[in-house]
Design goal:
The protein is of the alpha/beta class. It has one domain (about 35-145): Rossmann fold (3-Layer(aba) Sandwich), CATH 3.40.50. Helices cover about 30% and strands about 15% of the residues. It has helices at about 40-55, 65-75, 95-105, 135-145, and strands at about 35-40, 60, 80-85, 110-115, 125-130. Strands 2-1-3-4-5 form a 5-stranded parallel beta sheet, with helices on both faces. The radius of gyration is 15 Å and the shape is globular. The termini are far apart.
Length: about 150
């Protein structure tokens, strides 16, 4: 019998390294805004990257919270997290956003969902799929300007 273990950072444990704020640098003049798009729907991720890149944004993709945390750890700056609320695994979009904001103070978040999800927990705008290109662009720009 093969046994394996996966370490998941606990965002509520004060001793967890997941809580240690990073000291990311601010975006320099001339650099494009960097957006992390996290969604288990590959078609949405790829479509969002194509659209946002065509409109002057730099886009990094993640399929789940693990990939998102790797990007949060490795990116020297990040302006916006666009995250699906309902994703496979134990960490949903609200928890991912909390962990991300603990690591990157002041990070802006835009939530997306294909489900009818209560948005009481959201500390940011929630967009419901399907999302038109115009709506996604408008809300990304509004989140960045907020």
């Amino acid at each position: 019998m093969i046994k394996s273990a996966v370490a998941i950072p606990n965002p509520f444990d004060p001793q967890s390294s997941a809580l240690a704020p990073l000291r990311p640098r601010q975006r320099a003049a001339g650099e494009r805004p960097r957006i992390l798009v996290v969604d288990d729907d590959e078609a949405f991720r790829v479509g969002a990257r194509k659209l946002l890149t065509e409109h002057g944004f730099e886009v990094v993709l993640g399929a789940d919270f693990r990939e998102a945390l790797k990007v949060l750890e490795s990116s020297d700056y990040l302006d916006l997290l666009v995250t699906d609320i309902m994703m496979p695994g134990r960490i949903h979009g609200f928890a991912l956003a909390r962990m991300a904001r603990m690591r990157r103070l002041g990070l802006k978040v835009l939530y997306i969902t294909g489900y009818d999800v209560p948005t009481v927990e959201a500390a940011g705008k929630v967009l419901c799929k399907p999302i038109s290109d115009e709506e996604l662009l408008r809300e990304v720009r509004a989140a960045l300007d907020a």
